[in-house]
């Protein structure tokens, strides 16, 4: 399938200051892409460039093969057939839910507008709230209305800027799944900006890490989690720690945690120095055993679905292990540390 949206060597600037540069990616019809990165990395600037609200200083943006933005040419936002959901929802306070959704449908006949609004209300599961005003809605309901308004004009591409940041944790989880389902039902492409890794993993088909004004990596959430191309990406998509090691052969490494054996080749030669990135979920306390590093349990925090242990190795380093099985270790217990890494994340020393 050909790409619906193609971004090639894009740069955006404010005055003389470049905010993002050399950004390239593409998404297909029906695909949900996420731009994930820390605050101030240029995510919103990039999104506004896609929408046509901000000019681009270099590169090209294409929709279905047509150039919609370049350094010398730009199609107005209203001609791009894109829907936008803003971080603060941007609902009109003096308009009802019904009129907010219908706002971009002025060229439609009244009967058509009414039919579209009703279908959108059904889609976002607010069929009985058409006469209410924004101040009478919860944050989640306001988000659904903003989404309905963006979808009402049948856009080719939906853009969402930190759409769940104003909601509490539980509502964010619930609504991110719901919004993904709605977008998929409509079979439209979407670009979602967020700083929340869990949210990005839940909603996206493809994911890009934006940092320091550059797109650091682009791929599926699974690829970025298991095969990050840099330590910066590895740390941003999931908690973990770096361990120095010496390669013994193509599948084993000597580390302070002991000799670690892997099913997959490491891509290094014997005696090469390397760094292993290991996540807390890959570590577990076990009874003291030969060949494993020995540690003292500093703390144990039960979190419901898992238990977090802080373990002090005999060399003084403190590491974190997160285990889903119920273990009986308590503060002060002596244990060994088992490493169960399925796919090694390795970087040169």
From TrEMBL:
Gene Ontology cellular-component terms listed: ATP-binding cassette (ABC) transporter complex
Domain of life: Bacteria
One GO molecular-function entry: ATP binding
Domain ABC transporter per the UniProt entry, residue ranges: 5-237
InterPro entries: AAA+_ATPase, ABC_SmlMolc_Importer, ABC_transporter-like_ATP-bd, ABC_transporter-like_CS, ABC_transpr_FbpC, Mo/tungstate-bd_C_term_dom, P-loop_NTPase, Transp-assoc_OB_typ2
TM regions (residue ranges): none
Family annotation (Pfam families): ABC_tran, TOBE_2
Keywords per UniProt: ATP-binding, Cell membrane, Ion transport, Iron, Iron transport, Membrane, Nucleotide-binding, Transport
GO BP, sorted A to Z: quaternary ammonium group transport
Classification via SUPFAM superfamilies: MOP-like, P-loop containing nucleoside triphosphate hydrolases
Gene3D superfamilies in the cross-refs: P-loop containing nucleotide triphosphate hydrolases (3.40.50.300)
Full protein name: ABC transporter ATP-binding protein
Organism name: Neptunomonas concharum
Native organism taxonomy: Bacteria, Pseudomonadati, Pseudomonadota, Gammaproteobacteria, Oceanospirillales
């Amino acid at each position: 399938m050909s790409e619906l949206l193609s971004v090639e060597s894009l740069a955006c600037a404010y005055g003389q200051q470049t905010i993002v540069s050399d950004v390239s990616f593409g998404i297909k019809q029906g695909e949900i892409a996420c731009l994930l990165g820390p605050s101030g990395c240029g995510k919103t600037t990039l999104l506004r460039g896609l929408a046509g609200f901000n000019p681009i200083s270099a590169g090209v943006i294409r929709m279905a093969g047509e150039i919609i933005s370049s350094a010398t040419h730009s199609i107005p936002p209203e001609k791009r057939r894109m829907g936008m959901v803003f971080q603060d929802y941007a609902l009109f306070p003096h308009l009802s839910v019904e009129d907010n959704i219908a706002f971009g449908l002025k060229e439609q006949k009244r009967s058509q507008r009414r039919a579209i609004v009703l279908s959108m209300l059904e889609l976002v599961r607010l069929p009985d709230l058409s006469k209410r005003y924004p101040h009478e809605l919860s944050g989640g309901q306001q988000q659904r209305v903003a989404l309905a308004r963006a979808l009402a004009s049948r856009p080719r591409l939906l853009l969402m800027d930190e759409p769940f940041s104003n909601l509490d944790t539980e509502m964010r989880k619930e609504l991110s799944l719901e919004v993904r389902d709605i977008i998929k039902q409509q079979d439209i492409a979407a670009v979602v900006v967020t700083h929340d890794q869990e949210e990005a993993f839940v909603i996206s088909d493809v994911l890009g890490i934006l940092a320091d004004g550059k797109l650091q990596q682009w791929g599926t959430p699974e690829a970025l989690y298991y095969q990050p191309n840099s330590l910066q990406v590895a740390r941003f998509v999931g908690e973990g720690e770096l361990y120095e090691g010496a390669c013994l052969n193509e599948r084993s490494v000597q580390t302070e945690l002991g000799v670690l054996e892997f099913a997959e080749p490491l891509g290094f030669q014997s005696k090469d120095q390397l760094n292993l990135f290991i996540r807390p979920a890959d570590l577990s306390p076990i009874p003291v055993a030969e060949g494993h590093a020995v540690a003292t349990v500093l703390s144990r925090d039960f979190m419901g679905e898992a238990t977090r242990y802080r373990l002090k190795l005999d060399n003084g380093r403190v590491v974190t292990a997160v285990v889903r099985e119920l273990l009986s270790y308590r503060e002060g217990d002596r244990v060994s540390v088992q490493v169960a890494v399925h796919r090694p994340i390795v970087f040169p020393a």
